[in-house]
Amino acid sequence: MDGLFTPGLVAAQQPQWPGGPTGEPVTAAVNTLRSLPPLVFAGECDNLKERIAEAADGKAFWLQGGDCAETFAAATADSIRNRIKTILQMAAVLQYFSSLPVIKVGRMAGQFAKPRSSDSETRDGVTLPAYRGDAVNDIEFTESSRTPNPQRLVQVYNTSAATLNLVRAFTQGGFADLRQVHTWNKGFAKDPRFGARYEEMANEIGRALAFMASAGVDPESFKSVDFYSSHEALILEYEKALTRIDSRTNLPYDVSGHFVWIGERTRQLDGAHMDFASKISNPIGIKLGPKTTVEDALAMIAKLNPTNEPGRLTFITRMGAGLIREKLPPLVKAITESGAKVLWVCDPMHGNTYEAPSGYKTRRFDDVMDEVRGFFEVHKKCGTHPGGVHIELTGDDVTECVGGGEQISEDDLKNRYETACDPRLNHTQSLELAFLVAEMLRDR
Fold this sequence. Notes:
Elements: H1 24-34, H2 42-56, E1 61-66, H3 77-98, E2 102-107, E3 120-123, E4 126-129, H4 143-146, H5 151-172, H6 178-189, H7 197-214, E5 227-232, H8 236-241, E6 243-245, E7 252-254, E8 259-262, H9 272-279, E9 284-288, H10 294-304, E10 313-317, H11 324-338, E11 343-346, E12 353-355, E13 361-363, H12 365-382, E14 388-392, H13 427-443
Parallel strand pairs: 1-2, 1-14, 2-5, 5-8, 8-9, 9-10, 10-11, 11-14
Antiparallel strand pairs: 3-4, 6-7, 12-13
Helix pairs in contact: 1-5, 3-5, 3-6, 3-13, 6-7, 11-12, 12-13
């Protein structure tokens, strides 16, 4: 497997491991990872690729959500269940009003590393390595905690395996039954803070389910769902160690997750991350910010999908509410005219972060929704399909993003600010977003 990837390329945003990337500590961790079974199967990745191709053709909608950065401590049964529950609730609403199947993808079971703007952090005159996610070091501000530890990569694998085991149990064992999900949504929609707007939408879904029940319709597809895992392919030692040759096709797959994406800070065309993504057969995502040019986008397509394979490439745009209507149209127009097959997904979170007077990083719910609205407007004008949304969310009642029906204020942020990195929509805000996006899908 070592000969698969091009040697000597620069890998951005990598930890400063003790002994370097080829030292004994990293080598020991990598050898352990290479000996472990796959977390996902190549056939599942291919199934997801087929679903993405359908979404790119306007025949499905992509819903991707989960933590900004997973932590080992938060990988509890309750936390995992609440995230899955939130995504299932959102998907049920989106599917009904769009009349499209919804592809459900979690930012989970692998999202343990984060890029940072600086390699170090200084507090009260003390400078230590920046926290790069639990895959690398610990958030506690001490020298021992912040020293990168490659054995954490093995813990990422073990925690991801436990998470996927629970995800499969929840999504295949009755927890995801559409009728139960609808009951949860009815409880949300009756919340007086949201008025009658969402309640009427929920009642409409309820009438449809009641009609099917009266007609004796009880399909198996009501009782379980396909749920895919995804994360940013950031720490290359981890991703390469979990790349295997599929016995069916003799092709390499990154079996750390079904779908991996390359972030805006690591998508250098001549860099190691893009080389890695070009060599594996998984469906791949690329984050595109407001500085992305048409030339950049077309070059990435040529690098990652030279044969124009359907479902291979997803562009996840993160422009910011104030820029999406200006920056997205040239990209959509040029790529459509090129004939390239890509799925367009909106990340309305990362371009809308700001620091509140209290020092907390936060996002305004109205900005998040405005970026999604702009995403839909652009695709309507271009005659293309607004293929999905990519949301940082949690199933818990945190106070990290301001606004929404709960009217969380900047003063409220301190009450339950629990993220290890960026602010997430809480359970209620996530459902409110789903109902609002459902209206856009219905009216598209």
